[in-house]
Every structure is written in C-alpha cells, then in structure tokens.
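Deviation from plan, reported transparently: N-(5'-phosphopyridoxyl)-D-alanine complex.
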Amino acid sequence: RIVYVNGDYLPESEAKVSVFDRGFLMADAVYEVTSVLGGKLVDFDGHTTRLRRSLSELDMPSPATDEDLLAIHRELVARNGIEDGMVYLQVTRGAPSERDFAYPDASVPPTLVLFTQAKPGLADSPLARTGMAVISIPDQRWARRDIKTVQLLYPSMGKMMAKAQGADDAWMIEDGVVTEGTSNNAYIVKGDTIVTRDLGPHILAGITRAAVLRFAAESQMKVEERPFTLDEALAADEAFITSATTFVMPVVRIDGRDLGAGRPGPVAIRLREIYIEESR
Ligand code: PDD
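Because the crystal trials were delayed, the predicted structure below was used instead.
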C-alpha cells in the first residue's frame, strides 16, 4: 500500500513519523475519514470544512490547501486502486525537539499523514440487513467532542465493552441522554418523527448526519434535533446510526431489548438507500 507522509508518497513500510511527534505523545492531532464509493470521494468538501474547523479550534497550523488535500486524496485512491473503501487523514502539531506541554513555535511544521483502506462491497454490508445491537455506557470522553481529535481510547474501550456483551457498538449516555455512538451519530424514530441529538460541544457534527438530515427533509420526513433519553430510545419504534464508514446503519437492539420487531425499520432502510444512491 502507498501512503502519504509530509509531501511524499511511499510504500507503507518506508513511511516514518518521529517519536517526538505530538500526535503520538499527546494525542495533539485531528483527523478525518472520507469514504470512497465506486472510486469517488463521498462528501469531500464537508470533511475538509470540518477539518479546517478542528484545526482552528486547536490553533493548529494548516498543513496544506484544500486543493492540495483533494489532489492527495485522489492520488492515493488512484495509486492504491480503491473502488470502495476510505481515505484516512491525520494532522498533528508536528515533532518539536523536546517533549513539552506548551505548543511548539511556528517553526515546527505540522505532520500530515494519509492512507487508504479498501473495503470491497462497502455499500452492501450484511449488518445493514440484520441491523446492529448496541449497549449503553457512560460517556466519559472530554467535553469538546465537536473537535475531531485522535483521543479515541475511551471510544475503543466502549467498542470492547460492546463486543464483550455480544453487541456491535456502544451508545454513550450523559445526564441520562444519549450523546452518540463510539464513532457515529445516534438516532431514534418514534411514530413518524426522527430524533437526533442537537449539535454542540457534546457531539461531533457528522458529515453523514448533515447529508441524511437534508435527505430526510427533502423526503418530507419529520426531524427533531434535541437530546433524547435512553428510556426514550428503549421505547422507540426503530433506531439507526450514521457515519462516513457505515452510512446509515439500522440499530435493532439496545441493552439486549429489541426495538419494535427487532428488524431494521423502514425509515433507516429508506434513508440508507437514499444516502447510498446520492453518494455514488
Ligand atoms: N467517526 N461521532 C463520532 C464520535 C465519530 O467518531 C464519527 C465519525 C461520527 C460521524 O461523523 P461522520 O458522519 O462525519 O463520519 C460521529 C469516523 C468514521 C471514525 O472515527 O472512523
């Protein structure tokens, strides 16, 4: 596989990042994941806009222009022959000569790394047919989840807690309400209304979320952006998640309890179809 590191396209075995890199030492890094469907980047502009915001919220220098980022994405997709899969991008605050909590001065350039992962058949995942099971866990992440940082240890722990219980993912709960999944936004459907957490520091503003809410509105579906409780979720008719890598994925079980018939619901199925159709 060919990866990109600071201006160079290299075989992955030759790519190097310093041990002093702040991404490695301090999780001082932000990232984006952009899906590739049929060789095409999905929602590239949305991901770049959010990357700009993450960088600016952390006063992190920009590693490249939007045009350069697009060119690098396309080059990697081409060089690795990616039809279906994703491009991962990470920017760190670079590698100063000493470990220090204070940010380095402007002479230290940011680190920019990108790589691809092939996922043949990404759009017809078997999980979309059965639906996924989630468990609820307390949300113990930091309070700026609107910034897409690489502090992913708690979400990784959440994923393992889910696996240990035979589930697919965890929904995180704060003050009784669902914030989001370990790496996705969370939704419930009650009657004809879709409910998902309103934007703010407590969740990531998903790029897939924005697209799906737009498609829902265009299809005359009712949407409420507000906090919803775990109890509301357990009593919902259906539920689903969204992310760049899963698109729209039905949720059929929460904490071992079936939602409705325990099968993917019509709203999730319809939104998944629309999203994939529009992204191809
Ligand atoms: N995760 N919320 C969290 C905490 C996430 O990590 C993600 C994405 C989302 C959905 O955002 P988007 O629709 O822009 O992908 C919501 C990516 C896919 C990841 O970490 O792999």
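Helices lie at 22-26, 44-57, 66-79, 127-130, 153-164, 207-218, 230-234, 266-279. We consider this an acceptable substitute for the interim report.
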